[in-house]
Amino acid sequence: MQFEHRHAAHCESGTVSALLRHHDIEVSEAMAFGLASALAFAYLPFIKVAGLPLISYRMPPKAILKGVQAQLGVRLRCETFRDAARGMARLDELLGRGQPVGLQTSVYWLPYFPPDMRFHFNAHNLVVYEKQGDDYLISDPVFETPVRSAAADLQKARFARGLLAPHGLLYYPERIAPPRDLRRAVLGAIRRTTRIMLHAPLPFIGVRGIRLLARRIGKLAQSRDPDHAALFIGHHVRMQEEIGTGGGGFRFIYASFLQEAGERLGNAALPELAAEMTAVGDHWREFALAAARMCRGRTAMDFARLENLLLEAAAREEIFFRALAACKA
Amino acid sequence: MHIDEVPQEGNATLGGQRKAMYAVGADGRYTIVQSRGWEAEEAVTTQAVEAFQRLAHEALRRAREGLSSPLEYHMYRGRMDLALLAQTTGLWRWRIRRHFRPAVFARLKTVLLMRYAEALGISVDQLRAVP
């Protein structure tokens, strides 16, 4: 089967964009990300990933699948399976019909990932477009070129258990409706994002979540376990910078969305806001570099400085999202 | 981030892969640029890999001294912790912790060993031994 592979920064938006492109709907990765209101911030100390709190710069997995359906009028058919063999048979059946299929997988079991990146992260998305013998040909959006995986490995990756277990989730576009009014979709998506960042009723979401995490990191100075404190900081930077964030915790992808939306709607304010968002993303990168150097002992650990950098990030995000909320597209 | 600011530092943890990043070109427009990796990312990924390696190393030492079963070593080698192994196998944590005791582990039935082996992606023979 012919499938156009395109390198993307984030797996879920890249996968959705690629599947829609295959059905002649041109939606860039950044547009898919922005229209689905995927940008966010969350610090959830009560959910642990390898013993460390969940920190996320975006909405939870599957938010883009859902958001794109709501805003673009496409219908994605999603199926999960109790039985792994049936899940694999269904994949083969769809491929046999010439239907490329999106999958949710665990990074750890995918053989083509570099060993140092294979962690038990269960919400990695990719497209399978062909089966050759016992191998599946895969368009994994965060890789430069198409890759392949043996059936046994792919099955393990699809049916991994634990937090965000995929349960063999597969999806493909089912019904393509005529595109909705782009202006309304963009405005609605922006409003949802600003609401989450500024007005979430929970203290660990949005700008308030950044401040909460800042204070938590400031308090690490009193920690009696410096190794754990360093792991905490390193974990935070990983959530912000590692594969699939496009750097700056998705802030640059979102800026790209604002720019593209502004151009397509002939709106001059959105590209200006995109430039602001870029500056915020650059600040996040400054934090990441300072934090990473500290937790490897290249510079002295300075929790107060990290706290201040985070508080500044929160202040900048607050100014930015208030301006975005006031923008009339 | 400008195109010329996209890090190209050859991050070892990427294994030669490049990753896509959004950056602003000279005309002010966003494009996707391939990055060879960044010092900050390499530092924190290495830190996370080493944390598991250290745990596996300590478990290996304990297993060789007869203080722990091979299961604990294989769990950390597979980059899992007790919580994740419990979720993956569907066993209670206290039960798994009990199986870290060499005497208990030695008496485990094959069915249970197979459950662990399956969760960790290794064979039962591998599970029973330590290097």
Explain what this protein looks like in three dimensions.
The complex is a heterodimer of chains A (329) and B (131). Helix content of chain A is 50%, strand content 16%. Chain A has eleven helices and eight strands. In chain A, a hairpin with a 2-residue loop joins strand 5 (124-132) and strand 6. Chain A is an alpha+beta fold. The radius of gyration of chain A is 20 Å and the shape is globular. Chain A has a six-stranded antiparallel beta sheet, sandwiched between helices. Chain A has a two-stranded antiparallel ribbon with strand order 1-2. In chain B, strand 1 (19-24) and strand 2 (30-35) form a beta hairpin. Chain B has helices at 39-64, 70-77, 82-89, 93-99, 102-106, 110-120, 124-128, and strands spanning 19-24, 30-35. Chain B is elongated and about 70 Å long. Chain B is mainly α and 131 residues long. Chain B folds into two domains: 3-37, no CATH class; 41-128, lambda repressor-like DNA-binding domains (434 Repressor (Amino-terminal Domain), Orthogonal Bundle), CATH 1.10.260.40. A two-stranded antiparallel ribbon of chain B has the order 1-2. The longest helix of chain B has 26 residues, at 39-64. Chains A and B meet through helix 8, helix 9 and helix 10 of A and strand 1, strand 2, helix 1 and helix 3 of B.
Q: What's the SSE blueprint?
A:
The complex is a heterodimer of chains A (329) and B (131).
Chain A: H1 11-22, H2 29-35, E1 39-49, E2 52-58, H3 63-72, E3 74-79, H4 84-96, E4 101-105, E5 124-132, E6 135-139, E7 147-150, H5 151-158, E8 170-176, H6 182-199, H7 206-219, H8 226-241, H9 251-265, H10 269-295, H11 303-326
Antiparallel strand pairs in A: 1-2, 3-8, 4-5, 4-8, 5-6, 6-7
Helix pairs in contact in A: 1-2, 2-9, 6-11, 7-11, 8-10, 9-10, 10-11
Chain B: E1 19-24, E2 30-35, H1 39-64, H2 70-77, H3 82-89, H4 93-99, H5 102-106, H6 110-120, H7 124-128
Antiparallel strand pairs in B: 1-2
Helix pairs in contact in B: 1-2
